[in-house]
Design a protein that fits this description.
Helix content is 16%, strand content 22%. The protein has 67 residues and is α+β, with helices and mostly antiparallel strands. The protein has a domain at 2-44. Helix 1 (23-33) links the parallel strand 2 and strand 3 (39-44). The radius of gyration is 14 Å and the shape is flat. It starts with a strand and ends in a 23-residue tail after the last strand. 0% of the residues are buried.
């Protein structure tokens, strides 16, 4: 989910308290893969909303478009 210019949250659902074994390595790989300077945050959430069809949005943007 892109929440602001230069900021992306990776949201996921898991029942485990701390499901990521190496978040630092994942963040480093993401930063290396994206050519622009972007701040990443990995965020565990209780649920991810589905559309009426039952599908998820893989990529979402919460930035308001102007002009």
């Amino acid at each position: 989910m892109q929440t602001a210019r230069g900021r992306i949250e990776l949201r996921f659902v898991s029942r485990q308290a701390e499901p990521l074994k190496d978040a630092a390595t994942l963040l480093a790989e993401l930063r290396a893969a994206v050519p622009e300077p972007v701040e990443f945050e990995i965020r565990q959430v209780p649920a991810i909303a589905r559309h009426a069809s039952g599908k998820f949005d893989e990529y979402c943007c919460e930035i308001e478009r102007t002009g």
